Amino acid sequence: PVNDPLDPARRYLRAIDIETGDIRWEIEQVGPMEQTLTAGNYSGVLATSTNLVFYGESSGGFAAVDAATGRTLWHFEAGAIWKASPITYRVNNRQYVAIAAGANILSFALPVE
């Protein structure tokens, strides 16, 4: 890719209306642009039935946003390179979300509804 200092590349997490193709909301991702396959951010996005969207930020944070508005609801600064997409699982009727960060697996309990 060409680096143009007058028009730098940008990355966004976007919610797109499936029926119209319109962008409903977007969140610009900060952090260095990935230059090689070994330095990339490999986090995907996880949407839940409770209208939460989880994703690993390019800067090393892990965040949850409201699926309808994109408003950040929670953020954890891991300072790590993401190695996989977030997953969700349930133990004893409690929901968790986990993600591979660097050499670690981080797991967080969601609030009880």
Main sheet summary: 4 strands, antiparallel
Across the major sheet, the strand order is: 3-4-5-6
**Could you tell me the radius of gyration in angstroms?**
15 Å
Ends distance = 46 Å
**What are the secondary-structure elements, in order, as H or E?**
EEEEEEEEE
Helix content: under 10%
Number of alpha- plus pi-helical segments: 0
The mean pLDDT is 86
Q: Which regions are unreliable across 5 or more consecutive residues at pLDDT < 50?
A: none
Describe, in short, the structure shown:
This protein is an all-beta fold and 113 residues long.
Description of the molecule:
It is a single chain. This protein is 0% helix and 46% strand. Strands 3-4-5-6 form a four-stranded antiparallel β-sheet, with no helix packed on it. The chain is globular and about 55 Å long. With 113 residues, the chain is mainly beta.
Q: How do the helices and strands line up, and which of them pair or pack?
A:
Elements: E1 11-16, E2 23-29, E3 45-47, E4 52-56, E5 61-66, E6 72-77, E7 87-91, E8 94-101, E9 104-109
Antiparallel strand pairs: 1-2, 3-4, 4-5, 5-6, 7-8, 8-9
Please supply descriptive tags for the structure shown above.
single chain, 113 residues, three-stranded antiparallel β-sheet
